[in-house]
Write a structure and sequence with these properties.
Growth Hormone, Chain: A, mainly alpha, 17 helices, about 425 residues
Length: about 425
């Protein structure tokens, strides 16, 4: 009854004053998120560039770092303390990616800029609900539902949010690069890793850890909500430069699918792969931290590489690094190999996402979010297939090695597709 009489602003501050674990730590973020979704207030007018950048950064920490990546360090904990099986862990990851796929399908059909903007805002608060909601039950079907909602939120942050940022960059005459924006993914990994390590040091239960992630999610949602990019100007976007011929679409779709397989296997199982080696027990959280520390600056560096070497050569180089990141733990159980693999994964995977979406956005200036969503359908399909297949391969073989080699082969096919695209692109340009 008290929560119903409390204003959303009061709830915003009370969530951090609540002692975790406490029932209020679960209820308060959900109540506040629901209230803000219903309010649907317009964004702040005349934002400064640093506000747009920080708002986008917070949105990716929220929708990807918390709603998706917090599951990675939590997977071994839930398998040990909550009775989650190995196949069940894979299916929960798949549920998240099914939600992401559903969100991508929805975004790909939305033309109205007002609705794109509105759904982005709702996605921010859905990410809060999808994070803290994991603590409400220990039933696998409930977890699957909540992970699905988190996937929807991830699509909102990655596609709608990134599209809004790209539109704002084009409209304001700034360089149409997304490296600074996508630093939020690496930052999300770092935040989730540090939070998981601190929760572990405090010996919190698995429910309390999800509540802690929910508190972080709420803070990020407040920042992202207040500094959303404005609703795109329909007239202005409609007069943008016409998109280039889409000879690139299907080769890029295939390559992005292959990258999605590599991304989802590493993003889901990095901690579990390390912890499965007896001599590396306790190193999983550190490997995940290294992943985030490598990812955060790498997207900016890949922007500069693409600027000098070209978009496709930079992407080919990044794919090659991602292949190395999955081969290393397959050939060596040494701690140096584990940490180097984590650094290579973090240093390439997010850069691939950033460069690919920037490649698409620059060629579809009228509605970059829709074009990104169309390409992401292949990436989403890979993320649906990858976790479940990996889980069953591990359960059948007792090792992650077969799944890692399979992933390396798939990534190799992605490199082939990019090489063919580069040749075709030069022919088309000629």
């Amino acid at each position: 009854m008290l929560l119903r009489k409390t204003s959303p602003t009061d709830l915003q501050f009370k969530v951090f004053a609540a002692r975790v674990p406490d029932a209020a730590a679960i209820r308060t973020p959900i109540v506040y998120a629901t209230a803000m979704m219903a309010a649907d207030t317009p964004p702040t007018a005349d934002l400064h560039p640093w506000q747009v950048w920080l708002g986008g950064l917070a949105s990716l920490i929220l929708t990807i770092g918390m709603a998706r990546f917090a599951y990675t360090p939590m997977l071994p904990v839930m398998q040990m303390d909550a009775g989650l099986s190995i196949p069940g862990g894979g299916w929960l990851a798949t549920a998240n990616y099914v939600g992401y796929m559903a969100g991508a399908l929805l975004v790909a059909r939305i033309e109205n800029p007002v609705w794109r903007h509105r759904l982005y805002g709702w996605g921010l608060w859905l990410a809060v609900i999808g994070t803290v909601g994991m603590a409400l039950s220990n039933h696998v079907l409930w977890w699957a539902l909540v992970r699905f909602l988190g996937g929807l939120a991830g699509a909102a942050g990655m596609l709608l949010g990134t599209g809004l940022v790209m539109n704002w960059l084009i409209k304001t005459g700034q360089r149409a690069e997304l490296g600074l924006h996508f630093m939020g993914i690496g930052a999300g990994v770092v935040v989730s890793a540090l939070a998981a390590a601190w929760f572990s040091a405090q010996a919190w239960t698995w429910q309390a850890r999800w509540e802690g992630f929910g508190a972080i999610a709420l803070l990020c949602a407040v920042v992202a909500w207040h500094w959303r990019p404005p609703v795109p100007d329909t007239a202005a976007s409609g007069s943008a430069t016409a998109p280039s011929p889409r000879y690139w679409f299907w080769p890029m779709m295939l390559a992005y699918f292959c990258s999605g397989v590599g991304f989802v296997v590493s993003a889901t199982y990095t901690v579990a792969i390390v912890e499965a080696v007896p001599t590396l027990a306790g190193l999983g959280a550190w490997a995940w931290l290294v992943t985030g520390l490598a990812a955060a600056p790498s997207v900016y560096l890949w922007d500069r590489i693409a600027r000098r070497a070209g978009e496709l050569p930079a992407l080919i180089a990044a794919y090659t690094g991602q292949i190395a990141s999955v081969v290393l733990p397959a050939v060596s159980d040494h701690w140096i190999a584990a940490l180097l693999a984590a650094a290579l994964f973090g240093g390439t995977a997010i850069g691939i996402v950033s460069m690919t979406l920037a490649f698409v956005g620059k060629r579809s200036p009228k509605n970059p979010g829709k074009a990104m969503a169309q390409l992401t359908l292949g990436y989403g399909a890979a993320q649906i297939i990858g976790p479940a297949l990996t889980a069953y391969a591990v359960a059948a073989s007792g090792s992650y090695h077969s799944a890692l080699w399979m992933t390396a082969v798939v990534l190799g096919l992605g490199v082939v597709s990019l090489v063919r695209l580069r040749q075709t692109g030069h022919a088309q340009n000629a």
